[in-house]
Amino acid sequence: MRRPVFRLPAWLPVDGYILTLLGTVGLAALVPARGAAATVADGASTGAVALLFFLYGARLSTREAMDGLRHWRLHLTTLACTFVVFPALGVAARFLVPFVLPPALYTGLLFLCLVPSTVQSSIAFTSIARGNVAAAICAGSFSSIVGIVVTPLLAGLVLHGDGGGFSAHSLVSIVCQLLLPFVAGQVLRRWVGTFLTRHKKVLGYVDRGSILLVVYAAFSVGMVQGIWHQVSPLRLLCLLGVEAVLLAAMLTVTSYGSKKLGFPRGDRIAITFAGSKKSLAAGLPMASVLFGAQAGLAVLPLMLFHQMQLMVCAVLAKRYAARAAAEPPPAVGPDGSGPDRGGSAVGVDPVQRESEHQRAGR
C-alpha cells in the first residue's frame, strides 16, 4: 500500500518549496546554529555548494549545449537580458537608498539582478505557453553556465562597497566551490551520467536539501549577529513593490523587445520566460560564497522575487496557451511546410523534420 503524499491544493498560488524555505528561515530564527554547531553548519554548507555545482556539471550534456549554439541570436538576446538589462536596472535603482530601501536590502536586490536565469521553470512555462521548448532548454542551460563566471565578475564590478564583490579569498572560494566542482562533473559525466539519470528523483531531493542547508547556515549567522533588526515590515513591503516593478519591466522588455527583433512566436515565448527570471538554486550558493556572514539579508530579495516570478509567469503562460488555442491552425503547403505559429523551426528535431517531409512526399 502506497503512503499518501502531501500536496498543496492546486488553487494555492504558492510554491511548496518556497514554503519549505520560509520554514527553514523560521527554524534558523528560533534555533540558530551557534558555536560548534555553527562551525559544523558552515562546513556542511560549503560541501553542499560544491555538491550542487558538481551535479550541475555532471547532468549537463556537453553535446546538447554545443548543438544549441546554432540558436546564437536567441541566446545572445537572452544573455543580454539576464546579464546586461537586469544589472542596469539594478544599478539604476540605487537612488532608492536609503529612502525606500536600506543599503542591506538594496545589495540583495542588486545581487538578484546578477544571478543567471532558471532552467526548469523556464522550460515548464514555455511548454505550457506552447513556445519553443528546445530553445528554452538551451537558453536556461547557457545562462547557468555563463553565470558561474559572469555573476561573480559582475558582483566584483557593481557590488564594490555594497557588502559584496571580489577579494582574494572570495576568488579562491569561487574557484574551489563553484568552478572546480562544475568542471569535475563535466569530466566525470561519462561515468556517472547514467547513474544520475537513473536516480534523478532522489538527487532532486539532494539538490533541494542542499539549498535548505545553505539557507539555514546563512540565516543562522544573520540571527546571531542581529542583522534582522535592520529590516522593518514597511521596508519589506517597499521591497516587494520594487521587485514587482522590476519583474514587470523585464517581462515588457523581453516580450516586446523580442518581437521588435523579429523572432517568431515560439522563440519570443522562450525569451520572455528565460530572460525575465532568476534562479534561486544558483543564486543561494553563490550568495553564501560572495557575502559570507551577510548572506542572510542578501538572499532575501532573491527568495521573494523567485516566488513572485513563479506566480506571475504561471498566469502569463496560461494566457499565452489560451491565445495559441484560439488561433487558426497554420496552413500547410504541398511540400508539408507552413508558417510558424507555435514554435520556431530551429527548435524542431532534424530527424523529426525529415520524417515529416518524407510522409508529406508519399
Automatic annotation (TrEMBL):
Under the heading Gene3D superfamilies, the entry gives: 1.20.1530.20
Q: Which domain of life is it from?
A: Bacteria
Stored Pfam families: SBF_like (PF13593)
Q: Which UniProt keyword terms apply here?
A: Membrane, Transmembrane, Transmembrane helix
Locations of Gly residues compositional bias? 335-345
Spell out where the chain crosses the membrane.
12-31, 37-56, 76-97, 103-126, 133-160, 166-188, 209-228, 234-258, 279-304
Compositional bias of kind Basic and acidic residues: 351-362
Name of the protein this chain belongs to: Bile acid:sodium symporter
Source organism (scientific name)? Streptomyces noursei
Q: What is the lineage of its organism?
A: Bacteria, Bacillati, Actinomycetota, Actinomycetes, Kitasatosporales
